[in-house]
Amino acid sequence: MTVEQKILAKIEEFDTIIIHRHQRPDPDAYGSQCGLAAILRANFPQKKVYQVGEKVHGLAWIAEPEEIADEVYRDALVIVTDTANQPRVDDQRYLSGKALIKIDHHPNEDPYGDPCWVKTDASSCSEIIVDFANANNLVIPDEAARMLYAGIIGDTGRFMYDATTSHTLNVAAQLIEHNFDAAQINRRLDSIELPVARLAAYVYENMEFTEHGAAYIILTSEVMKQFNLKDASTAPIVPLIGKVVGVKCWTILVQQKDGSFRLRIRSKAPIINELAKEYGGGGHPLASGAFMHDDQQIPEYIKKLDAIAESYNGED
């Protein structure tokens, strides 16, 4: 029995299914979670299917999470999508169900759940959900296709990132055959609010470069207050530094309320997730996150980022 069949067998076994995703969700987290929920509702109308987690205003156009009582978890199957490790699961009640499944595409360093299905060569978790549906001949309704397409577009940077494969494009083509406006989703994910546009100008004006092709920007609490933005609003600016010719890898450091820093680390080719692990984070080889307690750690971090850039001799 394949892992896709094992997951379907688990789904068929339970009357109540609750789907979680990671904290601080992105389009793929929403798309894979809510897209899977829509598929299950369409194919198993007799089952109760819920999608839970923090409500994020900027992603409400993809789908809305639901609020459910603790007792709903009794005898329920819990599925967690797009979440590499358990501390990042949004809503810790995910452990309150009777059974747990993990579906993800990040490095599997925390193999929780049974089954635990991880495809690190997939462009996104949304792509994996389409594979799951296809493998089991499940109907993908138009609304699920819309959400899953948004997830794929979000995690591939509109097919610019290295994780994009011919299979990714085939999956996207399959989804576009459904009744939704793909171009509108592309435009929406490429659009930014005016405060973020002004922050983007600040980033380009103030970003710093190291000797060997690394770059970074430190966004202090004062800077964020100046633009009336919170950490979650910085996601659209993360790719900007990578557009600069000669930059191999880069980091956006955003100060939090307690003085700590959240790091968004990206790369065109040099592997950066091992560096992220040194600072309490992790993720994909070319896209990771990490944390710092205070700004005293920043100089050492920048030296390490520069050393990674120096060690890479290929084209950026």
Layout of helices and strands, plus pairs?
Layout: H1 3-13, E1 16-20, H2 27-43, E2 48-51, E3 77-81, E4 99-104, E5 116-118, H3 125-135, H4 142-156, H5 166-176, H6 182-190, H7 194-206, E6 208-209, E7 214-219, H8 221-226, E8 249-255, E9 261-267, H9 273-278, E10 282-283, E11 287-292, H10 298-311
Parallel strand pairs: 1-2, 1-3, 3-4, 4-5, 7-8
Antiparallel strand pairs: 6-7, 8-9, 9-11, 10-11
Helix pairs in contact: 2-3, 2-4, 3-4, 4-5, 4-6
Give an overview of the whole structure.
- There is one protein chain.
- With about 325 residues, the protein is of the alpha/beta class.
- It folds into 2 domains: about 5-190, Alpha-Beta Complex (inorganic pyrophosphatase (n-terminal core)); about 195-310, Diaminopimelate Epimerase, Chain A, domain 1 (Roll).
- About 35% of the residues lie in helices and about 15% in strands.
- It is built from 10 helices and 11 strands.
- The chain is globular.
- The chain starts with a helix and ends in a 5-residue tail after the last helix.
Summarize this entry quickly.
With 316 residues, the chain is of the alpha/beta class. The chain is built from 10 helices and 11 strands. The longest helix has 17 residues, at 27-43.
How much β-strand is present in the residues?
A: 15-25%
Could you say what the CATH architecture of the largest domain is? Answer: Alpha-Beta Complex
Question: Pairing-aware structural class of the strands and helices?
Answer: alpha/beta
Compressed to H and E, one letter per element, the order equals HEHEEEEHHHHHEEHEEHEEH
> Could you estimate the helical fraction of the residues in percent?
25-40%
The radius of gyration is 20 Å
Order of strands, main sheet, comes to 6-7-8-9-11-10
The helix tally amounts to 10
First-last Cα distance: 42 Å
Largest sheet, strands/sense/barrel: 6 strands, mixed
Instruction: Count all strands and give the number.
Output: 11
Shape: globular
The CATH class of the largest domain is Alpha Beta
The residue ranges in which pLDDT falls below 50 over 5 or more consecutive positions are: none
CATH fold type of the largest domain: inorganic pyrophosphatase (n-terminal core)
Q: Name the quaternary structure.
A: single chain
